[in-house]
């Protein structure tokens, strides 16, 4: 009897193995296509996580990870007790809120506008124009902005003078740092962000629009009652992923905009890690700062996903 029951228990395990083997043979091409992506995340995302252990050590490069002394949460205590911690946290959160409130809706609105264009040639020309900035590096984007906003023959200041106004020092004035930051993000990423939304809109049943037109609904009512509800799940998923980047506001972009005059409102965790880790050689301390950023992002994603499920929406898992 025991022998029979053992065989019965072994049957599901064999069937699962056979099912996996059949799936690999049947969908081998698909698995091969996702292999580069899996390797990328494994090599560049998951394996480096082992290095986070130095956040709990007094890491010395010549001693290595296994030879460095353990200090526990000392680096985290130092981070939270730093006089500049609240300033850095405030700057990071303000930039994130601006990104979320101002930039996040822009690709949605732009996608809705592009979706209403009926002339395909004109639509493709506009899409190409708004996609191009995404393929330019932040160095080019910031350099173009510097040329346009410069006090010395900058296009914007020349227009202000021609209109009878005084020149404005956009680059050195701390009050203009955050507007420049968010406008540059919109310029570079708004067009690229429309791709997912346009793909979601393409899957909407055209019969819904036809029925609404018969009922007398105009373009705006169709957008409000058909298009937006149809892409709501996509918007929520992208919003959840965006919340996970709450302390990730972009090192390269911020670093290129920083100078001695606007550092007080522009210093964020990304640039602080560069300053402490690479310029000052405090590898363990900078790893602790990075660990703190990742932990906050993970906690917010889990919490936001739980809330979305609580309200009956789709989450990311």
TrEMBL record:
InterPro entries: MetI-like (IPR000515), MetI-like_sf (IPR035906)
Keywords, comma-separated and alphabetical: Membrane, Transmembrane, Transmembrane helix, Transport
Membrane topology recorded in Swiss-Prot or TrEMBL: Multi-pass membrane protein
Keyword Membrane among record annotations: yes
ABC transmembrane type-1 domain location: 89-304
TM region(s), chain numbering: 30-56, 93-114, 135-151, 181-202, 223-241, 283-307
Localization terms from the record: Cell membrane; Membrane
SUPFAM superfamilies: MetI-like
Superkingdom classification of source: Bacteria
GO cellular component: plasma membrane
Gene3D superfamilies: MetI-like (1.10.3720.10)
Primary location group: membrane
GO BP of this protein: transmembrane transport
Family: Belongs to the binding-protein-dependent transport system permease family.
Name of the protein described by the UniProt record: Sugar ABC transporter permease
Species the sequence originates in: Paenibacillus soyae
């Amino acid at each position: 009897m025991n022998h029979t029951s053992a065989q019965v228990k072994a049957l599901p395990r064999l069937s699962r193995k056979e099912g996996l083997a059949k799936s690999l043979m049947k969908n081998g091409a698909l698995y091969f296509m996702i292999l580069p992506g899996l390797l990328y995340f494994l090599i560049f995302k998951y394996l480096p996580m082992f290095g986070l252990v130095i956040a709990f050590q007094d890491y010395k490069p010549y001693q290595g990870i296994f030879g460095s002394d353990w200090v526990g949460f000392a680096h985290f205590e130092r981070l939270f007790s730093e006089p500049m911690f609240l300033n850095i946290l405030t700057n990071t959160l303000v930039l994130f809120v601006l990104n979320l409130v101002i930039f996040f809706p822009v690709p949605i609105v732009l996608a809705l506008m592009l979706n209403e264009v009926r002339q395909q040639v004109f639509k493709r020309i506009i899409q190409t124009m708004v996609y191009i900035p995404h393929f330019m590096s932040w160095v080019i984007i910031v350099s173009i902005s510097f040329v346009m906003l410069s006090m010395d023959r900058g296009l914007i200041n020349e227009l202000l003078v021609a209109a009878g106004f005084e020149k404005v020092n956009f680059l050195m004035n701390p009050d203009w740092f955050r507007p420049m930051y968010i406008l540059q993000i919109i310029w570079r990423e708004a067009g690229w962000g429309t791709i997912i939304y346009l793909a979601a809109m393409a899957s909407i049943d055209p019969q819904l629009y036809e029925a609404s037109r018969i009922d007398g609904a105009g373009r705006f009512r169709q957008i409000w009652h058909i298009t937006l509800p149809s892409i709501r799940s996509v918007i929520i998923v992208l919003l959840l992923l965006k919340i996970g980047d709450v302390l990730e506001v972009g090192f390269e972009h911020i670093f290129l905009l920083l100078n001695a005059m606007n550092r007080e409102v522009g210093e964020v965790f990304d640039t602080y890690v560069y300053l402490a880790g690479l310029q000052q050689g405090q590898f363990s301390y900078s790893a602790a700062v990075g660990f703190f950023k990742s932990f906050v992002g993970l906690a917010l994603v889990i919490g936001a996903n739980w809330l979305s499920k609580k309200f009956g929406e789709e989450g990311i898992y």
